[in-house]
Write a sequence for this structure.
């Protein structure tokens, strides 16, 4: 049975944010890859994130059918003690809508659901999701999610 998060994500995949494949930029850390039903998925993790945590994040994204069919980068990092997920996007219309609408945008709403899902499966860690253009250094929106105490 599909969970509300999975249903929302499927709709999101059809309309909003394409995501990662192998972005080609090894400066984003260690590259890890896994087969998914749709494509080979690739994600990077920085030295600040241990391999076990990176693998958990990667598997959680695969479990919610995150779109790894595009050739855009994804990276998990840790900044100021917070788990940080950077996601590449090349859809100019989606980027403009997210910038204009902020919290009212459907993609941002999706990430509002993804952050606590990741957190709850990673021991309650706080999670930031940083949306970037095609290059992970080109941020355009940050969602900070505070874990409940």
């Amino acid at each position: 049975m599909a969970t509300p998060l999975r249903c929302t994500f499927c709709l999101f995949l059809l309309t909003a944010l394409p995501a990662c494949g192998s972005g080609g930029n090894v400066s984003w850390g260690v590259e890890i890859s896994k087969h998914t039903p749709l494509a080979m998925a690739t994600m990077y993790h920085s030295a600040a994130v241990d391999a076990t945590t990176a693998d958990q994040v990667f598997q959680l994204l695969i479990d919610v059918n995150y779109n790894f069919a595009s050739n855009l980068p994804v990276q998990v990092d840790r900044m100021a003690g917070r788990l940080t997920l950077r996601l590449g996007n090349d859809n100019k219309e989606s980027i403009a809508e997210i910038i204009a609408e902020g919290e009212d945008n459907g993609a941002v709403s999706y990430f509002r659901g993804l952050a606590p899902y990741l957190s709850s499966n990673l021991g309650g860690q706080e999670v930031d999701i940083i949306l970037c253009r095609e290059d992970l250094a080109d941020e355009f929106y940050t969602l900070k999610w505070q874990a409940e105490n």
The longest helix spans residues 106-121. The mean pLDDT is 83. Residues 81 and 126 are 8 Å apart (CA to CA). Strands lie at 30-35, 40-45, 74-79, 82-88, 127-132, 139-145.
